Structure formats: structure tokens, C-alpha cells
TrEMBL record:
Residues 7-115 form the CENP-V/GFA domain. Coiled coil: none annotated. PANTHER family: CENP-V_GFA DOMAIN-CONTAINING PROTEIN, CENTROMERE PROTEIN V. Transmembrane segments: none annotated. This is GFA family protein. The keyword Metal-binding applies. The keyword Metal-binding applies. It comes from Rhodopseudomonas telluris. Keywords: Metal-binding, Zinc. It comes from the Bacteria. Belongs to the Gfa family.
Length: 119
């Protein structure tokens, strides 16, 4: 997929909803402990390209390891919709769980391997 497109999505139960603009040029297939166990595939967006449309009050935060990435999960169904963090250059970033995009078919996306296990 190429070219910027507006996507909507959310968690399993529907309490958390978002809208974002992205090209899905890079979707990760990370082998770190959390991505492996949860089956997460992220694309990274500047915060201005992501809007939480519903469910702020339902979000629960999960921090682990260096506690640098704020994983945001629906407190009702437990799905991780996105995470907030900072890039090495210090700029803020949203890591969107691509599986939460409405109607997405992960099999049609090119996944980029990331060796998170070695970091």
C-alpha cells in the first residue's frame, strides 16, 4: 500500500476508537517479547496524524522493560490499540497496532522484520 490514506479503527469491544492518516509503508514484524506474545504489528505516526475519537477514559497504560513506551490498552477488552513513545531524536511518536484498523487484512501488507529481542 502506498500513499497517505485516512483509516479508522478501534479495539475489539468498540469503546476505544481512532482515526489516523498513514501510508502503511512500514508495518513491523518485531520479535521482542511483547510483540511476539501479543501478535502486534505497528506502524509509526506523528501524533498530529492520530486522533483518539472515543475511549480515552477506558484506556489503561502498560509499561515494561525500560518503561519508555506507554502501551495503551482498552480496559474492557484488553486490546492494545496504540502506544506513545519518543524516537531516538526526541520527537514524539504514536505506534499504531495495525490489526486495529477497520477492515485491514494483514496478509496483504508487506511486514518489515525488526529484531527487538536483541535490543
Amino acid at each position: 500500500m502506498s500513499g497517505l490514506k485516512v483509516y479508522t479503527g478501534g479495539c475489539h469491544c468498540g469503546l476505544v476508537r481512532f482515526e489516523c492518516t498513514t501510508d502503511l509503508a512500514t508495518v513491523t514484524a518485531c520479535n521482542c517479547s511483547i510483540c511476539t506474545k501479543k501478535g502486534l504489528h505497528f506502524t509509526f505516526l506523528p501524533p498530529k496524524s492520530f486522533q483518539l475519537r472515543a475511549g480515552q477514559e477506558s484506556l489503561k497504560e502498560y509499561l515494561f522493560n525500560q518503561r519508555a513506551i506507554s502501551h495503551q490498552l482498552c480496559g474492557e477488552c484488553g486490546v492494545e490499540v496504540f502506544a506513545r513513545g519518543t524516537k531516538p531524536d526526541g520527537s514524539e511518536v504514536i505506534a499504531l497496532n495495525v490489526a486495529c484498523i477497520d477492515g485491514i487484512d494483514l496478509a496483504t501488507l508487506k511486514l518489515t522484520p525488526v529484531d527487538g529481542r536483541s535490543r
